[in-house]
Amino acid sequence: MTASAPMPRPGVAFLLAQLGAHAAGLFAERITGLDLTPAQAGLLRMLAARPGRSQRELADDLGMPPSRFVPFADELEERGLIERRRNPADRRVYALHLTGKGETLLGELAQAGMEHERLLCEALTDEEHDRLLVLLRRMADQQGLRPDVHPGYRNLRPRPGA
Amino acid sequence: MTASAPMPRPGVAFLLAQLGAHAAGLFAERITGLDLTPAQAGLLRMLAARPGRSQRELADDLGMPPSRFVPFADELEERGLIERRRNPADRRVYALHLTGKGETLLGELAQAGMEHERLLCEALTDEEHDRLLVLLRRMADQQGLRPDVHPGYRNLRPRPGA
DNA sequence: TATTGTTATACTCTATAACTATA
DNA sequence: TATAGTTATAGAGTATAACAATA
């Protein structure tokens, strides 16, 4: 009789954490070719969706303190991907925008994202992929997650090899 | 005419990363009451599934270098949750095992996991939950993920508030 | 000579908290 | 007095590499 405690099989929560970390690692690895980290890619996407927001707002959404956001944005500005614009009405704030170069890179990023999606979902039929999408969107919505941001952006340099 | 570039909606990969980080953060927060981090909980589960493995093997599965595993295991040993047993046949290795106290805590952990699962999947019917489980397991299997471990264990102290 | 476990150390990253300029 | 942005700094966490014991 070797009947000890029954080992519970992993549930949805564990699989989401596992697959999520796996997906994030693969994506980080993929975009090293574009010389971007996931958090940098996230900021570019956020600026495309809502241009002109303040550093404070963006830092909040990314889950990082303003003191960390400054050098984070500095690098992207030095690379000519984003630009800071003064607001004459309130000279304390910077409005952040994508440059043309930033928009171009965002296009390459979208391509990388599509290939990433394809490889990650290779085990699914097209129909299954769509059904999965529906369920995950419903969960994300009910859990109060916003479309553009996710908590993993806090980690500035995840190991690409995950 | 405000038709600029069409903003692509997030796909499965992004939602998995987002929900996965969210789920991991909620779980981390939940088990602070048991005074455990996700990585510590992961080790306890690994020892329940396969007792007696060496520190080297376990460190590899957890994605951490041996030098980091030692103080990590030290703490759990000092708290009486795991124990190191010498192997007379090869005196270099320690075989790690759960103590009775560790098994008890693992039971509380399982309960926390069930409540976590319930809240995370609140938006789904029971049937949808099961269908989601099937799809995620198939993906995890095809992507080569092992049942007990996930790459997020590398992060020793994720913000509980995620 | 190779491997397990351990320790030491240098380095990176981080949050906290000042500080400035504007409001 | 409060807020956006910035800078400084002290502390925590990490990987790398050396080391000791055993094979």
UniProtKB/TrEMBL annotation, chains A, B:
Residues 9-141 form the HTH marR-type domain. Keywords: Signal. It comes from the Bacteria. SMART domains: HTH_MARR (SM00347). Residues 1-23 form the signal peptide. PROSITE patterns: HTH_MARR_2. Pfam families: MarR_2 (PF12802). This is MarR family transcriptional regulator. It comes from Actinomadura nitritigenes.
